[in-house]
Amino acid sequence: MNIKETKKIANKIFGWLSDREGELLFNLAKNCKGRGVIVEIGSCNGRSTVWLASGSKSGNKVKIYAIDPHSTPSKHQKGKRNKSFEEFKKNIKNAGVDDIIIPIVKTSEEAAKTFNKPVELIFIDGDHKYESVKLDFDLWFPKVINGGIMAFHDTLSWPGPKKVVDNFVYKSKHFKNVKFVDSITFAQKVEQNTLRDRIKNRYVLLLKKISELASKLHLSEPIKDIGKEIIKTLQK
């Protein structure tokens, strides 16, 4: 399934992932070499999971461990006993990607206790409180292989994810090639980055702060799109 086909399917699933963010996840998953698995923290109804799975199936078919306690009722199940897990299972099956996804119905903390597989790509989109995002980072960072990718959702407008990536990704000596697409910040884990890497990371952090300010302005969608393309070019 290509990006265009995935977009049609994913956009039918309730969630807060933009098309640009979905395409990023698709390509990150597609580029995984099989040196480790893909982990998703926070699957909800499966919108981002479908993007990841479609990308992986277009690449080396790396398994995806979708971790979510599914303790919040889905959009279509208010008042019912069944939570978002039923909606999640239906959506990944309809997308034809359920064969590559291994759901884990636990919290991130519960799952991390027994998870012993190397991680090549992780997408963190769980509880957005600072303490929770920082805990996710602390729990899963050691499991990510050198050269692997860590990605975080909602790092522009949500204080918790924003603070974690600003302090522990952009300013860290253990990441290089830090970039962002819409609200997703992603970076490659390394044992030790170089001075040049650190300068580049701080430069991209400055671009992110400019994007944060621009997002608060009442700009038209065409102007916003032009701005995003300029930011994308400046990150190369």
How would you describe what is shown here?
There is one protein chain. With about 240 residues, this protein is α/β, with parallel strands linked by helices. The chain has one domain: 3-Layer(aba) Sandwich (Rossmann fold). Helices cover about 45% and strands about 15% of the residues. A seven-stranded mixed beta sheet has the order 3-2-1-4-5-7-6, sandwiched between helices. It is globular, with a radius of gyration of 17 Å. The chain starts with a helix and ends with a helix. The mean pLDDT is about 95.
| Number of helical segments with 4 or more residues | 9
Give the strand line-up of the largest sheet: 3-2-1-4-5-7-6
What is Rg? 17 Å
Q: Identify the CATH class.
A: Alpha Beta
Question: How many individual β-strands?
Answer: 7
Structural shape: globular
The CATH architecture is 3-Layer(aba) Sandwich
Helix content percent band: 40-55%
From the helix content, strand content and strand pairing, which structural class follows?
A: alpha/beta
Uncertain parts: none
By CATH, the superfamily comes out as: Vaccinia Virus protein VP39
Strand content: 15-25%
What summary fits the major beta sheet? 7 strands, mixed
- End-to-end gap: 27 Å
**Averaging pLDDT over every residue, what do you get?**
93
- SSE sequence, one letter per element: HHEHEHEHEHEHEEHH
CATH topology assignment? Rossmann fold
Number of structural domains: 1
